[in-house]
Amino acid sequence: MPPAVSRPRIVIVGGGFAGLYAARALSRAPVDVTLIDRRNFHLFQPLLYQVATGGLSPGQIASPLRAVLARQKNVTVLLGEMVDLDADRRRVVLADGEVPYDTLVLAPGATHHYFGRDDWAPHAPGLKTIEDATGIRRRLFLAFEAAEREPDEARRRAWLTFAVVGAGATGVELAGALAEISRETLRHDFRRIDPREASILLVEAADRVLPPNPPELSAKAGAALAGLGVRILTGTRVTALDAGGLTLERGGAEERIAARTVMWAAGVRASPLGAVLRDRAGAELDRAGRVLVGPDLALPGRPEIHVLGDLAHCPDENGQPLPGIAPVAMQQGRWVAAKIRAGVEGRKPDSTFRYRDKGTMAVIGRGSAVAVLGPLRFAGYPAWLAWLFVHLMYLVEFENRLLVLLQWAWNYFTWNRGARLITGPSPFPLARGGGGEPPEP
Amino acid sequence: MPPAVSRPRIVIVGGGFAGLYAARALSRAPVDVTLIDRRNFHLFQPLLYQVATGGLSPGQIASPLRAVLARQKNVTVLLGEMVDLDADRRRVVLADGEVPYDTLVLAPGATHHYFGRDDWAPHAPGLKTIEDATGIRRRLFLAFEAAEREPDEARRRAWLTFAVVGAGATGVELAGALAEISRETLRHDFRRIDPREASILLVEAADRVLPPNPPELSAKAGAALAGLGVRILTGTRVTALDAGGLTLERGGAEERIAARTVMWAAGVRASPLGAVLRDRAGAELDRAGRVLVGPDLALPGRPEIHVLGDLAHCPDENGQPLPGIAPVAMQQGRWVAAKIRAGVEGRKPDSTFRYRDKGTMAVIGRGSAVAVLGPLRFAGYPAWLAWLFVHLMYLVEFENRLLVLLQWAWNYFTWNRGARLITGPSPFPLARGGGGEPPEP
């Protein structure tokens, strides 16, 4: 048998939901797949807020890409960072080398978006990576420690005020988890402060939480959060943000809130590789930096280059771009794999990707969630069980599914958050606190 | 009832085995305990090598101190760093404040010791903290990634050569885990390299591995390691160490070994607080920086200051200092608590701490360990089960015991090390590799 040099070379950039599902769906195809990622693991991002709030450990929501793909012999995993593209010679340019392709699948994901205020980033970290999550965990739990040590009432109050900017799924989940931490998990842990006195603010520019969902769902989520003691500020914009707190504008009136811990869940920006595609392959970008793709997820005029997941601006039936969520990415990954396979096998591929919306969910807290599943809309305990089931089923490795379920069961019955470790550089003297920002003047 | 101002104030510095067990043993005593630690968690150090080798996550071997002590109302936990001592005014000086005491229990632990070659530290990290463990994990798994990307044979060999300096329990455990990783866990993960070709060196200056144990045990451990493919170099000293490798001297002959990953398990140095005790309270230190204590674990002439654990030079019946291991620290913690309680309750305390040696164990790998338990000496599977049982029983929180056991069972049957995440700063370009050291010239 001749060596497999003549097999089509499929290069996938990004081992998130889109890229990993594309690679897996190519398992039986007569192609050579190279999966390139900057990290050596697939991250189950929907549970990242659990790491940020001490409920799970990073290893419980991440699976080594090589382990997931070890038995799939037509895949080579490459730890590498794509920095450029040579579209005419069909080569992905890495920081340290080049990788030739016949077909390219780009799914590098997204990063935080501060809407032109990148100076806010050090004071209001977003939640996209393991390092983001352990950094937020550090800030959260150091804030309670600093409050315990702080004799001044006003300063203590600032340490015990937590603001989450953005009330999409991540913001709602963070705010709900924070409420549980302060009301239950830490209840008996301190001697000078009462963690239950912590203020948790959820700031949202739209007129309701979970804005893309049906209004009745937003109402249920809002009521559940309010029941946990979260102060919901809708129709509210952030106009200033620094180490000492934030300024909110609502109906023309401004309010300054002293808060030492602010988390950013307000927006994402597409990967900078979008600009590379624009410059090197003539791609068109939308205002959020996403790449406009055709109905077959390929670049217009470049049928060998596909863009998937958070980087893709892929319209739904109403012309609205599909949201940057895991189900969209998974379906796109599988669809592109089927298209590639059909082409290789000489069949006529499907020409149009269609997203099948199976529903949306957000978890509020222990035994509390909201869900839209087809025609069903439900909240509370049944929604929470549905949320738990769906998320556990999608965790890639069997190991994670089982042990995360057990961890969850344990946490549920005990209000435990045993992974609330403060790691990283020395925080002393403690008043410097959270994230290495300068002390309050 | 008057406020409890007249209750004796017991200040414990350090939440390791000695400090935490002392605090817990004081639960029913009519005293006010303040436990000060720089970290917000108790770390189960005997399993730290499992984090360094991707078998367990940090959250699985660490328990928040506040959670462990939440229900013990006579304990206040303080996140703080002791920087000085005012022995005459009986105050512990923190980076940001002072804490008065009537009785002081100092158990701050130990750090790495490079025997005057601190310049080796960046190239050969030790294993004492969570950050050490995730840093070593990063180096280990990045080395395999760099080898996969390296076209040059000699450089690839250097990436696939791992040296562990020091064959005490930690060194033996690291070398054994490394052998399993390369022979089994990563077996199917790469396409260009065969991880089974990795060289694992265990370097020891004494004439056998596990030197403080009976020779027959060392022999069994050595045979088990050799069976896993570890190259054991006893009677061997390190004379040079840099980013590219190390120079070994054995019987007068020197050998240079190109190894990009070196781990240091050769020695510990007592906490710098020993010097504070010498300068502020007239303590005498041994050559390793440990504080000479009396038979009651107190400083001679300062009966209110106790030193426990790795910082204490506490002689056994033969005049040899007790080793810096968890059982010694736990027994000292409990003994000091009993002494304090007797004093407070007006009883005559026991005047002499005696260590009850219940045995020593070291694990080699999957189903393989060596153990001395009283008159029994055994190896192989029974020793491994004994090791597993003892270690799980000592994990402080019930949660950890159960889930770590399950994780272990899973890892055992699947050779899994699902926590092998490469986290931290960007490693690109990859040839820079391991730990941010400069590239090989």
Keywords:
homodimer; 441 residues; alpha/beta; six-stranded mixed β-sheet; four-stranded parallel β-sheet; 30% helix; 25% strand; globular; disordered C terminus
Q: Could you explain the architecture of this structure?
A:
Two copies of one chain form a homodimer. By secondary structure, the first copy, chain A, is of the alpha/beta class. The first copy, chain A, has helices spanning 17-25, 48-52, 65-68, 130-149, 153-159, 169-185, 215-227, 273-281, 326-344, 381-394, 398-414; strands at residues 9-13, 32-37, 41-43, 62-64, 75-79, 82-86, 91-94, 97-100, 103-106, 110-112, 161-165, 199-203, 230-233, 236-242, 245-250, 253-258, 261-264, 268-270, 291-292, 298-299, 302-307, 312-313, 360-365, 368-373, 376-380. Chain A has a six-stranded mixed beta sheet with strand order 5-2-1-9-21-20, with helices on one face. In chain A, strands 13-12-11-17 form a four-stranded parallel beta sheet. In chain A, strand 7 and strand 8 form a beta hairpin. The N and C termini of chain A lie far apart (74 Å). At the A-B interface, strand 4, strand 5, helix 4 and helix 11 of A face strand 4, strand 5, helix 4 and helix 11 of B.
